[in-house]
Design a protein that fits this description.
Layout lengths: L1 H20 L8 E3 L9 H5 L5 E3 L17
Parallel strand pairs: 1-2
Length: 71
């Protein structure tokens, strides 16, 4: 629980830094990928800052199931 808050605060600080240094820029949404997308509740907490959703960049990519696993 506490570590989730630390991660969210660090990401928020990165968003804030970017918004304060880039002119005329806003965030409309963000995508969470990789291991972070598997952290329970992380996307919900980030969505309080900016709309977020999980994104699987490999969705729809076909691979040989004998050579690779989904994980």
């Amino acid at each position: 629980e506490g570590s989730h808050n630390i991660v969210v605060e660090e990401i928020k600080a990165s968003f804030d830094f970017f918004l304060n240094t880039a002119q005329n820029t806003t965030f409309s949404r963000c995508f969470v990928t990789g291991g972070g997308a598997r952290i329970s509740g992380l996307v919900d907490r980030l969505s309080k800052i900016v709309p977020c959703e999980k994104f699987d960049p490999f969705f729809g990519v076909r691979v040989d199931s004998k050579a690779f696993t989904r994980d």
